[in-house]
Structure to design on (264 residues):
């Protein structure tokens, strides 16, 4: 039946139709998935290389362009849902997901002058944004297969989160601070309270607080400890990820004295 629907869809529908997933649904750990991950890796590496070789003016243009792309990507995804006539407050307000929030953080940091970025938000972007985006890319909660518009936006938006964080580290010489991990962790948990209320009001599942998304680590934990308790081991996984991403900077601090970050 899915094949029949796929044949009936025009190329334009395969690109933009809201119900295109009924004919061709994305599946994790397939050739399409691995090809998308490879494309993301090449995109990030190429963009970092270009930014590193650019002049100071070129670097600033890159930051403004990437920051605007991150904001525009979020807005376009919400606008597409509205224009398609299927906007759902409990599903389409992606800014209430972890990756949606860290995408906004990344955009703000890129668009602000370097001296006004502060230290806390860059650490949030690094310790929460990169692991969150990588987990989403590894186990996408995504119905739309290539070449659908939302498929491309999913991979691009998460790639830009990683790119923005690595840009600050690689090009702007930001040094993540492991000592700020407790503050980042507490801030994320504080955000869960209003997000949970939004979930209850909209019938949504932002931050996946109501139920775990399919084909993810959260489902495994839900099977182990029950559907009401899977968030506890997920918190442990988050702390473990923070610790793993902190390791290079703990070793860095032991090898050499701290360098000025240009962020106050």
């Amino acid at each position: 039946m899915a094949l029949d629907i796929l044949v009936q869809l025009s190329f334009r529908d395969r690109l933009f139709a809201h119900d295109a997933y009924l004919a061709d649904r994305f599946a994790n750990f397939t050739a399409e998935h691995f090809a998308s991950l490879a494309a993301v890796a090449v995109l990030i590496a190429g963009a970092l290389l270009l930014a590193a070789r650019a002049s100071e003016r070129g670097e600033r243009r890159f930051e403004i362009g990437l920051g605007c792309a991150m904001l525009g990507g979020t807005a376009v995804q919400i606008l597409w849902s509205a224009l398609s006539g299927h906007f759902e407050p409990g599903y389409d307000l992606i800014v209430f997901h972890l990756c949606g929030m860290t995408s906004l953080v990344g955009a703000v940091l890129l668009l602000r002058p370097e001296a006004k970025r502060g230290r806390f938000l860059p650490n949030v972007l690094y310790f929460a944004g990169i692991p969150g985006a990588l987990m989403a890319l590894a186990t996408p909660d995504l119905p739309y297969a290539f070449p659908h518009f939302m498929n491309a936006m999913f991979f691009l938006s998460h790639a830009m989160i990683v790119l923005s964080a690595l840009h600050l580290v690689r090009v702007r010489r930001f040094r993540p601070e492991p000592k700020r991990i407790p503050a980042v962790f507490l801030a994320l948990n504080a955000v869960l309270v209003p997000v949970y209320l939004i979930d209850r009001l909209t019938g949504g599942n932002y931050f996946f607080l109501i139920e775990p998304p399919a084909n993810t680590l959260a489902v495994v934990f839900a099977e182990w400890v029950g559907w009401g308790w899977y968030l506890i081991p997920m918190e442990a996984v988050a702390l473990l990820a923070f610790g793993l991403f902190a390791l290079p900077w703990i070793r860095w601090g032991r090898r050499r004295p701290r360098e000025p970050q240009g962020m106050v």
Q: What stands out?
A: The CA atoms of residues 37 and 137 lie 7 Å apart. Confidence is low (pLDDT under 50) at residues 1-6, 257-264.
